[in-house]
Design a protein that fits this description.
Layout (H helix, E strand, L loop, with lengths): L4 H16 L6 H5 L9 H4 L7 H6 L13 E6 L9 E5 H17 L7 E4 L8 H12 L2 E4 L5 H10 L4 E5 H14 L9 E5 L5 H11 L2 E8 L4 E7 L6 E3 L4 E6 L13 E7 L10 E7 L1 E2 L11 E2 L4 E2 L4 E3 L2 E3 L1 H9 L4 E12 L2 E10 L5 H16 L4 E6 L13 E3 L3
Parallel strand pairs: 3-4, 3-5, 5-6, 6-7, 18-21, 19-20
Antiparallel strand pairs: 1-2, 7-8, 8-9, 9-14, 10-11, 11-12, 12-15, 13-14, 16-17, 18-19
Helix pairs in contact: 5-6, 8-9, 10-11
InterPro entries: Adenylate-forming_Reductase, AMP-bd_C_sf, AMP-dep_Lig_C, AMP-dep_synth/lig_dom, ANL_N_sf, PA_CoA_ligase
Subunit structure: Monomer.
Pfam families: AMP-binding, AMP-binding_C_2
Length: 411
């Protein structure tokens, strides 16, 4: 995907602002002090990357490029893997994000006649308020539940006749299982599910869609770049459309930083074209995907990336083999009796790595045969031998936010 004249103009405008920025720290001025006006694609690709570590070092407000009186909101990453990243928003940033989110709803066929049930968290996290702002701009009724209290969630869903569920895939699955357990499917009015915040496999997608009886749409975003709502899949389920009038996207080789051609899998890099409070140039997301060439069947002019296959920091190396959660998803997708839910444990015992896959299996299948089948499929597809421990559906923990599936206990 190449820069167009409109994007080039906005990037140069951003660079000029960043070189002059001196509000909290000299983060931008130091990073881009040698950068000149961008005239070509080659010029742009010489600009330095920005990484999450850069953002952590700028804590708390080193990313801020406007005076305090222009900042109307603060959002933050969770900080579970280190110092949290704090992102300031101007009123125009909030407006732009709301416009993008409204587009997401429209791409999913949601209208002002829908009732939107919002379960992602509110507060410093971007998710809940993003879903709500977009719904309000669309003119639809929104129910700002946030996560947890599943009983109350289901009561509101039934009584208010919610038609659209917004959730993480983990919580959507939990709700689907609870609806089935309580035998209240005939009281649920959901038609669509807009699911984001974590990568999820095809088997999990089918379970949620079938058990809730909904059409599913993948929504994409990250706190550093506005939040969820910078892209979404359409009815043809052929990747996620991204709003390239607000953002520019590249795919790079995670090891070399080389820009890859459209169609090749690599790490997604994002440049904000209009963001005022905390602009980012060539931000490495660590999300692995590819730009899908050509025009989508839906006719949208917006470019697409493929569904995320994982993150560079999700990968674990065992016995010389790189393993991503998406590979385990693909193994289980081939096994009829296996569920989408698993936990992959890596331990180091007696000077060697031991891998154990706990996987939920259906009760009408022979656990011993499934254990052998999964073990063989894992060896064939990924290349290492593992221990397989089949468990009953529902035995593995459920999460109201994101699920952790790989546990590396070697360190």
């Amino acid at each position: 995907m190449k820069l167009n004249e409109y994007q080039l103009k906005l990037i140069n405008k951003q660079l000029m602002r960043l070189k002059k920025a001196n509000y909290k720290k000299d983060f931008y001025r130091d990073k881009f002090k040698y950068s000149r006006l961008i005239k070509t694609q080659e010029d742009f690709e010489k600009l330095p990357f920005t990484d999450k570590n850069d953002l952590r070092e700028a804590y708390p407000l080193g990313l801020q490029t406007v005076p305090d009186e222009e900042v109307v909101r603060i959002h933050s990453s969770s900080g579970t893997t280190g110092t949290p990243v704090i992102i300031p928003y101007t009123a125009q940033d909030v407006e732009d994000w709301t416009i993008m989110f409204k587009r997401c709803y429209e791409m999913a066929g949601v209208t002002d006649k829908d009732i939107i049930h919002i379960t992602p968290g509110y507060g410093l996290w971007t998710a809940g308020i993003g879903f709500q702002s977009g719904a309000e701009r669309l003119g639809a009724m929104s129910i700002p539940m946030g996560p947890g209290n599943t009983g109350k969630q289901l009561k509101m869903m039934i009584d208010l006749k919610s038609t659209v569920l917004c959730a993480t895939s983990s919580y959507a699955l939990l709700l689907a299982e609870e609806i089935s357990k309580r035998d209240i499917n005939d009281q649920i009015h959901l038609k669509k599910g807009i699911i984001g915040s974590e990568r999820w496999g095809e088997k999990m997608r089918k379970r949620i869609a079938n058990e809730l009886g909904v059409e599913l749409y993948d929504i994409y975003g990250l706190t550093e770049i506005y939040g969820p709502g910078i892209g979404i899949s359409c009815e043809y389920e052929s990747g996620m459309h991204l709003w390239d009038d607000y953002l520019y996207f590249e795919i790079i080789d995670p090891k070399t930083g080389e820009v890859l051609p459209d169609g090749e899998v690599g790490e997604l890099v994002i440049t904000t074209l209009k963001k005022e409070g905390a602009p980012l140039i060539r931000y490495r997301t660590h999300d692995l995907t590819r730009i899908i060439p050509g025009v989508c069947e839906c006719g949208s002019k917006y470019p697409r990336i493929d569904i995320l296959i994982g993150r560079t920091d999700d990968m674990v190396k065992v016995k010389g083999v790189n393993i991503f959660p998406s590979q385990i998803d693909n193994v289980l997708a081939k096994i009829d009796g296996a569920s989408s839910e698993y936990q992959f444990m890596i331990d180091h015992l007696n000077e060697r790595d031991i891998c154990t896959l706990f996987v939920e299996v259906k009760t009408d299948f022979n656990k011993y045969e499934l254990e052998r089948e999964i073990q063989e499929q894992f060896k064939n597809d990924i290349g290492i031998k593992i221990q397989v421990k089949p468990v009953n559906i529902g035995d593995l923990p459920r999460n109201e936010k994101k699920s952790t599936r790989i546990f590396d206990n070697r360190y």
